[in-house]
Specification:
Helices cover 42% and strands 15% of the residues. It is α+β, with helices and mostly antiparallel strands and 310 residues long.
Length: 310
């Protein structure tokens, strides 16, 4: 299993589920297959099956992470590459062409045919719940403590900038300087109600708030694995600046879309351990007690069986 070297639930889920055939194997097992020969009989990609059709488009390495970046707002080729450390320009070009052929993305060109940017089509935007589901699965079953090679402060600061609640920002422009430890990096975030930008160099404005953080700790806060206050009390994150800005900092960000699933990951795993096949329900239904039930003649309660997925 090849790592994307990103501390991201979608990347973690894609590392496991993104290899060719994997989703079709899971489809067969959800449908009740359990023996090796039984699984092998259902593993042809020449299938008139929605899962197979979706896997043909989304199953290549990097493809779901490209979609993740575009759902987050990335549109330029260089912008996409910066959000996907480790991908080569040739591989990114190949994936974008494949997504264009599949009508998942569309390419905007200038007068001389030069690519200006890429946009998701309605089919591409419709992948948002798919990416969300893979990320929630990843954060529940695959995300552990970050490895050193997964700690990229630049990616983290870009993701945080995408999750700013502009309605809760101070009325005036606010400049936050981030000093990361492990690895050591420095960035600036300029926050305005009309625009949020990340700067690699000093933006030329006075700094209003300084944040010094262990990279791993701020990743955990962003993903909902720990609370901001807990990181501060542990000395893993410190702030200096006006008290009103320090108090407001945690409210300026909506944090990761996977933070709620991260906070409930242990509950989800516990709920899953109580569900025995072949009588299965979705973990979310078991977690919230909404699974439909039927009472048999002997008074026992059975949950509905999952339909075979085809």
């Amino acid at each position: 299993m090849r790592s994307y070297a990103q501390y991201c639930p979608v990347a973690k889920g894609s590392e496991i589920l993104g290899d060719r055939w994997t989703l079709l194997i899971v489809r067969e097992m959800l449908g009740g297959a359990s023996g090796f020969n039984e699984l092998q009989r259902g593993r042809s990609y020449a299938q008139y099956c929605p899962v197979a059709k979706g896997s043909e488009i989304l199953g290549d390495r990097w493809t779901l992470l490209i979609v993740r970046e575009m759902l987050g707002g990335a549109s330029g080729f260089n912008e996409l590459q910066r959000g996907l450390p480790g991908i080569s320009r040739s591989v990114l070009t190949d994936r974008m062409r494949a997504l264009e052929r599949a009508e998942v993305v569309e390419r905007r060109t200038g007068p001389k045919g030069r690519t200006l940017d890429y946009r998701l089509t309605p089919a591409g935007r419709d992948l948002q719940p798919v990416v969300q589901a893979i990320g929630e699965w990843g954060v529940t079953w695959s995300v552990t403590e970050p490895r050193p090679e997964e700690l990229d402060p630049y990616l983290l600061i870009v993701w945080m900038a995408r999750h700013v609640d502009r309605g809760r920002l101070p009325p005036d422009r606010t400049v936050v300087k981030f000093d990361f430890r492990g690895p050591k990096r420095r960035y600036w975030m300029v926050l305005e109600s009309s625009e949020v930008s990340v700067c690699l160099q000093h933006p030329g404005f006075d700094v209003d708030l300084e944040v010094v953080a262990d990279t791993a700790a701020l990743y955990r806060v962003y993903l909902g694995r720990v609370e901001l206050g807990g990181a501060i009390r542990a000395g893993q994150l410190t702030m200096s600046g006006p008290r009103r800005l320090q108090r407001g900092f945690g409210h300026w960000f909506t944090w990761s879309a996977f933070a709620p699933a991260s906070r409930s990951a242990q509950q989800r795993r516990t709920a899953a351990s109580r569900i025995a096949g072949p009588e299965r329900v979705r973990i979310a239904e078991a977690l919230h007690g909404t699974a439909p039930r039927t009472r048999g003649d002997e008074g026992d309660i059975r949950r509905r069986q999952v339909r075979p997925m085809r």
